[in-house]
Design a protein that fits this description.
Elements: H1 18-28, H2 35-55, H3 58-82, H4 87-111, H5 116-143, H6 166-190, H7 202-208, H8 213-225, H9 232-239, H10 242-253
Length: 254
Amino acid sequence: MSKLPKEHKFIDLSDYGRPVAKMIAQSLKSTCFTPIHVTLLFVASGLIALMFMLYGWYWAVGIFLVLKSILDAADGELARIKDTPSYTGRFLDSISDIALNLLIFLVVVWISDTHPVLGFLAFLCMQIQGTLYNYYYTILRSQLEGDVTSRIFENEIPTAFPGEKQRHVTFMYKLYRILYGSFDKLIYTLDFSAAKGKVLPNWFMTALSIFGLGFQLLLISVLLIAGLKTYVAPIIIGLTAFVPIFISVRKYLG
């Protein structure tokens, strides 16, 4: 099942790995590999990228961050192909993302002249941007009857799907809330009426997709390869200026 109906599919600048992700998912369809196994593989890819960052091998960093983005899409594709939705996998995916994002900026601080406060601020800004993108995207999928594991508001413990244990879902949900709760609350406060608005046009979602994690990781990779490691944090922070612009446009669209 696709995330969106054909007429509402948009060019997602952060989802460049989807075609390869679909191929990977198809190849794993009849195997014992689960979506969670694929999630663990993207964590491994992200950690390898971090190791290469420490050694200054930035082309390798780019390759493994792109691979991480591909695998990040492949776990969801595999869940849809096998028809095995999972809240455990959905929360594990998000928790792994935020942990890797924090580690990326810790390493950026370590390998450059970036002040630790600036690095942490960049991490926060990256999360705010990603939360806005995910908020609007989840609303869009909800309006169009998209996938069933992503919810607009994560404010209650979900009931486990068949095949997963409730205690695992409960634990992962609570951890998710600790890590993401403040970001979700901030974005909801800034645009609490978004869920009641009109279906967002494709051009808007394409523009907003610069806040998607895949695009952000690609941008970081390009900056590192170009020898601009000291600009990673300032550029990520600077992109946050577009947050109120996107929210204002969304409200104008109704």
